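User: I'm writing a short report section on ligand binding and want a predicted complex to refer to. Could you take this sequence and 5'-deoxyadenosine and write out the structure as tokens? A short remark afterwards would be nice.
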Amino acid sequence: MNVYDSNRMVDILKPFGYTTTDVPDDADMVILNTCHIREKATDKVFSELGRLRDYKEAKKAKGEKMLLAVAGCVAQAEGEFIAKRAPYVDMVIGTQTYHELPEMIAQALGAYGSNRIINTDFPVEQKFDYLPEEQQDVTPSAFLSIQEGCDKFCTFCVVPYTRGSEYSRTVETILDEAKRLIDAGAKEINVLGQNVNAFHGEDKLGNTWDLGKLLFAIAELPVERIRYTTSHPRDMHDSLYAAHRDLPKLMPWLHLPIQSGSDNILKHMNRKHTADDYKRIIDRLRTDRPDIAFGSDIIVGFPGETEEDFQATMDIVKYTNYSQCYSFKYSARPGTPAANMGGLVAEHIKSERLTRLQTLIREQQASFNKKCEGITMPVLIDRESDTEGRLVGHTEYNQSVIMDGNKRLYGQIIDVAITNGTPNNLVGNIVTTEDKTLKDIKTA
Ligand code: 5AD
Ligand code: SF4
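Assistant: Sure. The structure tokens for the complex follow:
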């Protein structure tokens, strides 16, 4: 979501003469787009700000200005605190205000050094209305935000507070954006939302569409691959199952966070589903799309978590057999209900549980990737490696694949024979007919 937002900020600022740069040294403006989801991410903001301050000072010594802005969820949640703790920050840009950036920049430049701009308003509809149509740097795998915010209020999570309540864009604006992305070269569309399968966007006739229906419409467009993230087990619906069953373009991989395998913990997390509900979803998707694989997010050490609860989490991980899974130690987020719950789990127990869980997950990932050895898989080449002559791409299961190849293949989906599967990625050789011909010529 933050990558998507950053790209939109770039689009908004382009008409005002701003372009992106890889180094902050001589920048006229640095926008730090931040994440508030876990404690660690927030801590990073202040250390990063300290570093950026040095660049700002260096510019000042030359008699030049560098606007320093904090955007994203930390800005939204801790705007006043940032202003106090880091007085050298010129702008605090909340999650729903980046369409107002040009105005904020003009104000900040006018008041440079004397006054700060803090904008943490919440006009979510407006933000989407004001997104410029043109998009730059469209990547072969492109993000398309269709929904923002969350009404679920899981007790550990800041998102409902930092991103606000659920808002769905209209079907028309989404499909228009999808068409533009495809025209600009996107082969894969990642449909995004904090709670993407809670999507309920209106079409021109005033009918409400769910995510399943929207995916069927996107699949009509000349796109090769479709994914969606992140979903909630409670919002799986019939047309979404149908999409998994009937749309070959919808990739056979689903990130479906479970958070915990213990019904007791799930209840205290306010997830409003049980471990069995989750298993039924997995079973149904496997029936509808037998080649599907799953990803997840899991929290260990939620307040009150016993060894038995943790074992239930290990059990659901064994049941689902994930191909990729993120896992985190619970960290209390200010303002969330869980932050005031008793039964805190000691840090060393959290660490020890995380290690056990990650060992299991790593085994599952390793075995999934190992099974790919000897198979030829379609890979979307979406990144050049730092090493010359090396390419990086993604399989239908979202595994990274590293291979030798010419960068002219960037943006194409090509067959790759997988030679090696490690827990974190795959290695393979390109098997296009074109390359075969080239090889034949060379041998001749
Ligand atoms: N502590 C640890 N992990 C968290 N997540 C969200 N909030 C917290 C928290 N307070 C994790 C959840 C979520 C992912 C994006 O981050 O697993 O799905
Ligand atoms: Fe946070 Fe996801 Fe729960 Fe919403 S559904 S509160 S975004 S964890």
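A remark for your report: The pocket of iron/sulfur cluster (ligand 2) is lined by residues 150, 152-154, 157, 159-160, 194-195, 232 (CB under 6 Å). The chain is about 40% helix and 20% strand.
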